[in-house]
């Protein structure tokens, strides 16, 4: 594991971290952040009944649940907020939390910040998934180790400790993900807009 990533994980101890939305990537990140000593809250507009048994499993890991209509209440009290890819970055509650000093980020932003290998990102209106899949397949055919993620594949932040500098990360990104990213990929592909 690289030193920057290790320092980030150590910095999570006793930090109040909220995950907005129980999506695919957050399902893996919630227990991971809790295991690093963060005080983790899942915030989701769905009710406990809609989430089902998963709510009990998360609470068993020590994760607090803030669900339903007021799921963004007291967001300004958090140290770190990870928004789901589909959540608009300019949501007033998120912007207020930023002004209050919270670090608002996402799984992909953290991955880009700490990833040691070349990153290829694909965005656009049509053809993102196909283009991302083809690029990954070409790298694999060339004998490279490929980490496929973003809107396709798996969450990449949880496996970042396994990523080597000689690997390739190929990610599909939506406009909602790009709007707040401050790290650029090594290669950017924009499909039909």
Nutshell version of this structure?
Helix content is 35%, strand content 22%. The protein contains eight helices and nine strands.
Which consecutive residue ranges, at least 5 long each, have pLDDT under 50?
none
In whole angstroms, how far apart are the ends?
37 Å
Radius of gyration: 17 Å
Question: Helices and strands, in N-to-C order?
Answer: HEHEHHEEHEHEHEEHE
Number of strands: 9
Helical proportion, percent range: 25-40%
Give the strand line-up of the largest sheet. 3-2-1-4-5
Strand content: 15-25%
Structure description:
- This protein has helices at residues 3-11, 24-35, 48-51, 53-60, 92-99, 107-114, 128-141, 175-178; strands at residues 16-20, 39-44, 64-67, 80-83, 103-105, 118-123, 146-150, 168-172, 187-190.
- With 193 residues, the protein is of the alpha/beta class.
- 35% of the residues lie in helices and 22% in strands.
- Strands 3-2-1-4-5 form a five-stranded parallel sheet, with helices on both faces. A four-stranded parallel sheet has the order 7-8-6-9, covered by helices on one side.
């Amino acid at each position: 594991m690289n030193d920057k990533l290790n320092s980030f994980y150590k910095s999570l101890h006793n930090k109040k971290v909220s995950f907005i939305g129980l999506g695919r990537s957050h399902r893996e990140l919630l227990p991971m952040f809790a295991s690093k000593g963060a005080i983790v809250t899942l915030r989701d507009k769905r009710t406990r009944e809609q989430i089902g048994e998963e709510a009990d499993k998360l609470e068993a890991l020590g994760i607090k649940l803030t669900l339903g209509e007021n799921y963004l209440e007291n967001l300004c009290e958090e140290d770190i907020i990870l928004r789901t890819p589909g959540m608009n970055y300019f949501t007033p509650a998120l912007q207020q939390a930023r002004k209050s000093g919270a670090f608002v980020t996402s799984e992909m932003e953290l991955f880009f910040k700490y990833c040691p290998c070349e990153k290829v990102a694909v965005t656009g209106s049509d053809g993102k998934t196909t283009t991302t899949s083809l690029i990954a397949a070409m790298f694999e055919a060339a004998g490279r180790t490929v980490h496929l993620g973003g809107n396709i594949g798996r969450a990449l932040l949880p496996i970042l400790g396994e990523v080597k500098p000689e690997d390739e990360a190929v990610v599909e990104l939506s406009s909602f993900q790009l709007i707040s990213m401050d790290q650029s990929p090594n290669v950017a592909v924009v499909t039909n807009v």
